[in-house]
Write a structure and sequence with these properties.
Elements lengths: L2 E3 L5 H12 L9 H6 L4 E6 L2 E12 L2 E9 L8 H16 L3 E6 L2 H5 L4 E3 L24 E6 L3
Parallel strand pairs: 4-5
Antiparallel strand pairs: 1-2, 2-3, 3-4, 5-7, 6-7
């Protein structure tokens, strides 16, 4: 299986996959409209025509982007698909000239394997908190903040 950029036709499957995990309180839910608006941010992995994994690199500012929406079907989680998606996001960030990529996650050890460093969420620029207001856990976020220096 290979990592590809998402297409419009992938939006409903991305929506379904992300909200599957959101229903388990391990991800922030996304509306279908939000997926369509940001479909260019997403990378996907498909098996035949079924989407089995996705992740997005969302640009926040000239030098800042976020990896978000990383989801891999449970029965595919030991196939390094999450790793391939993170690597695709990091490579795109590098190609775009982004200096820092961050993520908010419940799986910090996964991201630390790629050089992400844990930070106090208060150290992240205020610009990153825009969608947090929609989160049911706001303002008591229990995710871990991490950053990665792309082009140090």
């Amino acid at each position: 299986m290979k990592v590809d950029k998402a297409k419009i036709a992938d939006a409903s499957q991305i929506h379904k996959l992300i909200n599957h995990f959101a229903s388990k309180n391990v991800m922030l839910p996304r509306s279908l409209a939000e997926i369509y608006e940001n479909v260019r941010d997403y990378f996907v992995v498909k098996e035949n025509d079924k989407l089995v994994a996705c992740a997005a690199l969302h640009i926040n500012w000239a030098d800042l982007a976020e990896i978000k929406g990383l989801a891999v079907l449970e029965d595919k989680q030991n196939e390094d698909l999450g790793s391939a998606l993170v690597e695709a996001c990091l490579e795109e960030g590098k190609d775009l000239g982004i200096h820092t990529i961050f993520c908010l996650t419940y799986e910090p050890d996964f991201f630390k394997r790629y050089g992400f460093v844990e930070v106090d969420k208060k150290e992240l620029p205020h610009k990153v908190w825009g969608e947090c207001q929609r989160c049911p856990k706001f303002p008591d976020c229990d995710e871990v903040g991490l950053i990665y220096a792309v082009n140090p």
